[in-house]
Amino acid sequence: MVDLQNNLDDFQAANIQPVVFVMGTPVQAAPLVEKYQLTIPVLCDPQQEAYKAYNIPQGTPLQYLGWRVWLPGLRAMFRGGIGKPIGDVTQMHGTILVNTDGNIQTAFTAKNSSHYPSLADITTT
Asked: Which pTM value belongs to this model?
């Protein structure tokens, strides 16, 4: 989310409006929005309906606890801290580009819980 917010100008220049789904309620999401000063839309999905609709799978223990997650986790902790997880920590995340007709243009599913695509990754696939 922080990367989306920090690179919002690049996304908007590519004519992409980011939207974030969180697994919490609006009350649970509010501190997150405030902490990171998010100006992008944040939609609450405590039942994980969007994850199911876009076929974003549950992760394996290696994907959410493996060694590839630890170093980025430490970086995040020093950069701004890590809050208490909201929702299902085994749920992988994804990035879906939906065009103005409502059709999926690009679907990206994370390889592990610290894997996030760059703008180039999602606009060139």
From this structure: 0.72
Greater pLDDT, 26 or 124: 26
* CATH code for the domain defined by 2-123: 3.40.30
Distance CA 88, CA 48 (A): 9
Domain ranges of the chain: 2-123
Percent with pLDDT over 90 in the chain = 18
Read off the tokens for 58.
Answer: 């549950």
pLDDT of amino acid 98:
82
Q: What is the 3-state secondary structure (H, E, C) of the chain?
A: CHHHHHCHHHHHHCCCCCCEEECCCHHHHHHHHHHCCCCCCEEECCCCHHHHHCCCCECCHHHHHCHHHHHHHHHHHHHCCCCCCCCCCCECCEEEEECCCCCEEEEEECCCCCCCCCHHHHHCC
